[in-house]
Write a structure and sequence with these properties.
alpha/beta, 2 domains, six-stranded parallel beta sheet, three-stranded parallel beta sheet
Length: about 280
Amino acid sequence: MARKRKIKRYIFVILGIVALITACSTSPGKFLESKTTNPAKEAATARLSLNRENSQLQQPPNKIENLNFTIPKKFQGTTIYKAEVPNNEKVIALTIDDGPWKVTTPQMLDILKENNVKATFFWVGTSILENPEYAKRVVAEGHAVGNHTWHHWYKKMDVATAKSEIERTAEIMYKTTGVKTLMFRPPGGVLNNGLAAYAKSQNYAVVMWSQTSADTDPRAKYQVFVKNVLRDAKPGGIVLMHDGGGDRRRTVQALPEIIKGLKEKGYRFVTLPELFSVDG
């Protein structure tokens, strides 16, 4: 009997040891983690994660193809009014200034998309700042863009001011859409206030126009804009219109008829880089 009791005690001892080992091996990671957490280390890890997210947000958005709107070297540092196209090919470029603008820009984009037409938009830096979603849409839908200064000033400027006007716009354009461009249009077409000179020093092409819709005339009906464009259309022409800088509802009304009329005349629509490539 004594021998049996001793064997039972040994068995109980062995079973107890096994139970203890099993308990200690259950989910050891969670247990140790809860006991060894370092608050300072956790805070540092969180800061690192936040910094990484902020860095990603500051990067330019995912790019699509051909977002570097450069032009042939022969046009860089020059002033252009129209393109010389071989065999008087009926190509024409619609250019749209002063946006991106609330309401008007998306309306014009809808019309361009419906008619399978690509245009070139000259952006004002403050307008990009106020309406980044429309700037992104312009690029996403395959239109070209150019620099139209930060404030749209006409006044005389020293080199530092002209530099700021152009480079601030280039910077927000890139941060917002990933676009770089070598096309510049001076506000109001003013060529002697310091802006054009600085732009040329940076190899921009200073792009003017060969015909205007005259859509800044506050008294004219939209039919006049249509008449102006169709009357003056020439192969290699550059048409001036506006989506920003004021009430452009009449321009929106005119745009479908301008497109329809030019197509009936046999014109094909191109962006400025495409137009200059034909000339170049």
